[in-house]
Amino acid sequence: MRKIIFTEKAPKAIGPYSQAVEANGTLYISGQIPIDPATGKLVEGDITKTTEQVFKNISAILEEAGYTFQNVVKYTCLLKNMDNFAAMNEVCKKYYPENPPARAAYEVAKLPMGVDIEIETIAMM
């Protein structure tokens, strides 16, 4: 069974995709960028501030679907600049302090709306 997940507490999709889809006890969260859902505007600042906003968006989607960060099994970080890797990691540690999920991190040439980070997430019950 496939269920579309949507919450007003996370940014609306900026293309033909859902915030998340749940299928057979697995939640697939689309890549989140640092958009403040209250204003619809990008959060500006250093990688720490933008990564925090991305995790707030992921948190809202997890909560809407009945999951927590403890249910996350894998996440993928896309960075505009790998020099931001260490600072991004410091934020990630706050959300995954013990038994962190699997992860991949890549530097990419360009991200939507010119942002510096995008994170997609997979969680399981």
Task: Bin the helical content.
Answer: 10-25%
Series of H and E elements = EEEEEHEHEE
Quick check: average pLDDT? 97
- Percent strand equals 25-35%
Question: In terms of structural class, how would the helical and strand content be classed?
Answer: alpha+beta
- Straight-line N-to-C gap: 14 Å
CATH class: Alpha Beta
What Rg, in angstroms, do the CA atoms define? 14 Å
Beta strands, count: 8
Count of helices? 2
CATH topology: 60s Ribosomal Protein L30, Chain: A
**Strand adjacency order, main sheet:** 1-2-3-8-6-7
Contiguous runs where pLDDT drops below 50 for at least 5 residues: none
- The domain count comes to 1
Account of the protein in words:
The protein has 125 residues and is α+β, with helices and mostly antiparallel strands. It has one domain: RutC-like (60s Ribosomal Protein L30, Chain: A, 2-Layer Sandwich). It has two helices and eight strands. The strands form two sheets. The chain has a six-stranded mixed beta sheet, covered by helices on one side. Helix 1 packs parallel to helix 2 (85-95). The relative contact order is 0.24. The mean pLDDT is 97.
